[in-house]
Specification:
Elements (H helix, E strand, L loop, with lengths): L12 E6 L14 H7 L2 H7 L3 E3 L23 H20 L3 E5 L6 H11 L4 E5 L20 H6 L20 E6 L4 H9 L3 E4 H7 L1 H12 L7 E6 L21 H14 L2 E7 L8 H18 L6
Parallel strand pairs: 1-2, 1-3, 3-8, 4-5, 4-7, 5-6, 7-8
Helix pairs in contact: 3-4, 7-8, 9-10
The protein binds arginine and manganese (II) ion (MN) (2 copies).
Length: 312
């Protein structure tokens, strides 16, 4: 077992990319997620695991001017989401190029358009493991909500009609380099997209049938058969059951248990191939104070598992 990623330089450094951003969906508060995660002690927790921690404060998106941001079709805030994710792509790309583990704190999941673009700019052969209740693969044609956090994967794959505002997104992700775990709320149009593009997905049905250990192994066999390619893990906290992570904008019952979520992060760390990790959709404005505390704490502990925290 590698002690940490073979793509990470010594002394091993984690760069925290705090993204207080909510423009990919309509519920206020998800922009406070990163602030709560850091205030809960994430930096000292990472240091406790032996990492050098780089954190220069949360990114400020206020200066991204979007006075004039009319919808494209039904897509909401296209200009804002495009500019924010483009800036995050550069930041994450820079960290990954430097051999630092990029940990991005969301914020809504539209941010992954940026984080994954950043990873692929340095490692075009990287694979993506997307852990979520949702597939987030709607196109401008298929989206029913117009919320861009339900669409980042289609942009990364280059599916659907091109939206000029997002022309900076290079379709570098190949369908065979993507795998999902935890799906249970997939729109009809998204199911067709997954089928047509032969994208591998392990829904909660497969988690129940095979157990999480086997599912992670099968997921890795699919995207990383020789265990030699960099891994980008994009974790939407709503993959967890709402009893485990209640404070999130689009909760769906029947999700991953506390241990199943952590097992995924532990197993990916153990590959020694992790180069970037996202934790998205923690919304501290939703549910009561105890639920917020619980969700933030689970977020921190998922991240620690991804950075090598072990049980023994
Ligand atoms: N990142 C998320 N929580 N995405 C939820 C997406 C829900 C729905 N499929 C939509 O397109 O709007
Ligand atoms: Mn989700
Ligand atoms: Mn998501």
């Amino acid at each position: 077992m590698a002690s940490h990623s073979r793509f990470i330089r010594e002394p091993k450094t984690v760069a925290i990319v705090g993204c207080p951003f909510s423009g990919g969906q309509p519920k206020p508060g998800v922009d406070k997620g990163p602030i709560h995660l850091v205030e809960a002690g994430l930096i000292s927790q990472f240091e406790g695991l032996g990492w050098n921690v780089k954190f220069e404060g949360h990114h400020q998106f206020e200066d991204i001017k979007t006075n004039d941001d009319p919808p494209v079709g039904i897509l909401k805030n296209p200009k804002l989401v495009s500019r924010v994710t483009e800036s995050i792509a550069k930041v994450v790309g820079e960290h990954v190029k430097n051999g630092e583990l990029a940990v991005t704190l969301g914020g809504d999941h539209s941010l992954a358009m940026g984080t994954i673009s950043g990873t692929l700019s340095t490692h075009p052969e990287a694979c993506v493991i997307w852990v979520d209740a949702h597939a987030d693969i709607n196109t401008i044609e298929s989206t029913g909500s117009g919320n861009i956090h339900g669409m980042p994967v289609s942009f990364l794959l280059g599916l659907g009609s091109k939206v000029p505002e997002f022309s900076w997104v290079k379709p570098l992700l190949k369908p065979e380099n993507l795998v999902y775990i935890g799906l249970r709320d997939v729109d009809a149009g998204e199911k067709a997209i997954l089928r047509d593009n032969k994208i591998k997905a392990f829904s909660m049905h497969e988690v129940d049938r095979y157990g999480i250990g086997k599912v992670v192994e099968m997921a890795l066999d699919h995207v990383n058969p020789n265990r030699d390619r960099p891994i980008h893990l994009s974790f939407d906290v709503d993959a967890l059951d709402p009893t485990v992570a209640p404070s999130t904008g689009t909760p769906v019952r029947g999700g991953l248990t506390f241990r199943e979520g952590h097992f995924i992060c532990e197993a990916i760390y153990e590959t020694g191939l992790l180069v970037a990790l996202d934790l998205m959709e923690v919304n501290p404005s939703l549910e009561d104070e105890a639920s917020v505390k619980q969700t933030v704490a689970v977020g921190c502990s998922l991240l620690r598992s991804g950075l090598g925290e072990t049980l023994l």
